[in-house]
From TrEMBL:
GO terms for molecular function: DNA-binding transcription factor activity; sequence-specific DNA binding. This is Putative AraC family transcriptional regulator. The keyword Lipid biosynthesis does not apply. InterPro entries: AraC_XylS_family_regulators, Homeodomain-like_sf, HTH-like, HTH_AraC, HTH_AraC-typ_CS. It comes from Flavihumibacter petaseus NBRC 106054. SMART domains: HTH_ARAC. It holds the Pfam family HTH_18. SUPFAM superfamilies: Homeodomain-like (SSF46689), Regulatory protein AraC (SSF51215). Residues 202-300 form the HTH araC/xylS-type domain. The keyword RNA-binding does not apply.
Length: 306
């Protein structure tokens, strides 16, 4: 996809182009429909990019660090737990003050995919309807975080199925678009908490996403993050809008739903592979979340073998 897109402009500090020194870009996946790129950056004494022009529908999911995208006459702040979305035609500057480093993943889609998204979501999404808006930032949810992590994990393997990556990426885009139709309230996080504890939340979410199939207690998680149990619970809810156990359960349920939809594994196996220790509890939680039992969901979504 040769068009220039999100964060492709050179970064300039004091008039000196330092893109190669500050911003490392790695292509993870490319197809005719979309591309996935990994961005990592390091900066000191602040940075601001040259003006960039985005020609594709794009969204960015931050894994670590904090930065601003200056677009539409305002600054859009993003960090772990937020997704930054850009329409084709947006003009932006990539900005940060102070010192630090960060990592984020950018997904870019061709015009055909964008047109399909608009056709299906236009009536429900104010952002897509308003031609004056080119950029938006929204809160993510555990399901978006799970798919983002699963895509990166799959791409880290030597061999993977392109159709599997395509399916997960299109599903991720649908979840992002769905989040845009009914955006949740943006948590108000004091600057001091971000400065002191953003890395704690990044560490906690990474641990949960890497280990959700195992038994995880709040005590274990807070110790892993070097924070008291009481303080950790308050911080996690402040940053994510979810209590730690709620976030963990939604990841597990999303994983179970994915396995039911994409494999022929027995429901009992899926229960334990998703981190649940009791089949009756898993069945009740799944039914509450998806309004159908795991068995009926499997019957409705898995095609019978010939």
């Amino acid at each position: 996809m040769p068009a220039r897109s999100m964060f492709s402009a050179g970064v300039s500090i004091d008039g000196i182009d330092v893109l190669e020194n500050l911003l490392n870009i790695k292509s993870l996946f490319t197809s005719d429909l979309f591309s996935i790129s990994d961005f990592s950056y390091y900066y000191n004494n602040g940075l601001i990019s040259k003006q960039g022009f985005n020609t594709e529908f794009s969204f960015c999911l931050t894994r670590s660090g904090e930065f601003f995208l200056r677009s539409d006459g305002r600054d859009y702040e993003t960090f772990n737990g937020r997704v930054l979305v850009e329409k084709p035609g947006s003009v932006y500057h990539f900005c940060h003050q102070g010192n630090g480093a960060g990592n984020f993943t950018v997904f870019r889609f061709n015009q055909h995919i964008y047109d399909l998204a608009k056709a299906s979501m236009m009536q429900q999404c104010d952002f897509l309807q308003d031609h004056r808006l080119r950029t938006a930032v929204m809160v993510t949810n555990p399901e978006i975080d799970y798919l983002h992590h699963a895509i990166r994990q799959t791409l880290s393997h030597d061999k993977y199925s392109k159709s599997e990556i395509t399916g997960m990426t299109i599903e991720l885009m649908k979840l992002v678009m769905k989040a845009m139709t009914s955006p949740r309230a943006m948590p108000v996080i004091p600057p001091s908490n971000k400065q002191l504890h953003l890395a704690t939340i990044e560490r906690a979410k990474e641990y949960l996403l890497d280990n959700f199939t195992k038994s995880i207690s709040l005590v274990d998680l807070s110790r892993y993050c070097y924070v008291s149990t009481f303080h950790f619970s308050r911080l996690f809810k402040l940053f994510t809008n979810y209590a730690p156990h709620q976030y963990l359960q939604r990841i597990r349920l999303k994983h179970a739903e994915t396995l039911i939809r994409t494999t022929r594994l027995p429901i009992t196996d899926i229960c334990f592979k998703s981190g649940f220790s009791r089949l009756d509890y898993f069945s009740a939680a799944f039914t509450k979340e998806f309004s159908v039992s795991p068995t009926k969901y499997q019957t409705a979504t898995v095609e019978p073998q010939p």
